[in-house]
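Review this:
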Amino acid sequence: MSLITDVRGSLAQTPRIVEGLVAAAPREALYWREADDTWNSVEVLCHLADGEITDWMPRIEKILSGGGRFTPFNREGGFARYRGWTAEALVGEFGQLRRANLEKLDTLNLTAPHLALTGQHPEFGTVTLSQLLACWATHDMAHIAQLSRLQTRSFGRHVGPWRKYFSLLQGDAA
């Protein structure tokens, strides 16, 4: 399989995985933070949805239109855009935006030669379309892991002596 096919397949699964994680979480777990300066699950959802609007496809389109400098991505921009939204509404929004982006991606008919095209990241300098696509899928996986970890640690506060069996709970305050 090619990177394009692999990335697209991974990106298509993310909304379902996120929906499953959020549907299983009690409200308290969705707003639980590991520490004061960390994101809760609802903020992760805001970030994911906002990235579908302001990050991935605009950068792909920039590369395909001849390159140039990417607009910096405000990692917390979705917090303002989606202030007051419920987790369920955010999951729906993310799924809808992702489906639209996958449809756009499909219409681009990307091929192996496209993967070498470049754009200018504000921090990293020259990056390839291949790297951007791989980053998009990796970004999804990292936030899926984060959502799972947040729920594990939220529930894990109540497991008592079983905490010794959960590596994700090691080092956390009881």
